[in-house]
Amino acid sequence: MNSRTKYILLILATTAFVLTIYNHNNELTETSFDSIELKYAKIFFGIGVLCAGLYFFNKTWRNLVTKIMIGAFGLSLVLNLYIFPRVYKTVQLSKIYYEYSEIETCEEMEKRFSTDLKNGQLVYFQFGIGYDLELAKTLQEKYDIKTIGMGCIIQSEKECYNKLLIEYLKEKENISSLFP
Fold first, then answer.
1. Where are its TM segments located (predicted)?
2. Residue 133 shares a structural domain with residue 112
3. Model confidence pTM above 0.70
4. CB-hemisphere CA count at 13 Å for 127?
5. Which of 29, 42, 107, 168 has the greatest number of CB atoms lying within 10 Å of its CB?
6. What is the pLDDT along the chain (180 residues), one digit of tens a residue?
7. How many C-alpha atoms does 44 have within 13 Å on its Cβ side?
8. Which helix (H) or strand (E) covers residue 25, if one does?
9. Do 112 and 78 belong together in one domain?
10. Residue that finishes a domain, picked among 54, 73, 92
């Protein structure tokens, strides 16, 4: 195996490994922590590692095993790159949620709202059984407001933030029918 092939394999394997670990630790889908794409990425990575072991034990198969390694690590990398944007977006929303979860009073939330308003980083907290996708899409596209689903338990400090946001939008944007 020439040095160029070694470098290609090293880069493919390392990048696939790092992304697999990142995606595995941070992925949360509707049904589980491992999407089907991530499961296949892990399988292909395992095939690549197995072929790397076979490379050293059987000298007659080295050319074939090298091609299989490049293909397996490459497929693992492609699948992980496909998953990565969704996982990264989820991680960023989790960080935002964590920042707001530490705020415990309505007064602190009012201060946070004014800070968010100055920075142009407003957030709307959705409560209830179902997540209103249309409302989230409208808020994001028209007003650049991120929406975080909070589930069924209404939290009073986040409701304070929502009331301030709704008042602001009604005053500045003349919106009256967007919110229930």
1. 7-25, 40-57, 64-84
2. yes
3. no
4. 13
5. 42
6. 788 888 898 899 999 999 998 888 887 654 556 788 889 999 999 999 999 888 888 888 888 999 999 999 999 999 999 999 988 888 888 888 888 888 888 888 899 999 998 998 899 888 887 777 888 888 888 888 888 888 788 888 888 988 988 888 888 777 666 665
7. 24
8. helix 3-26
9. no
10. 92
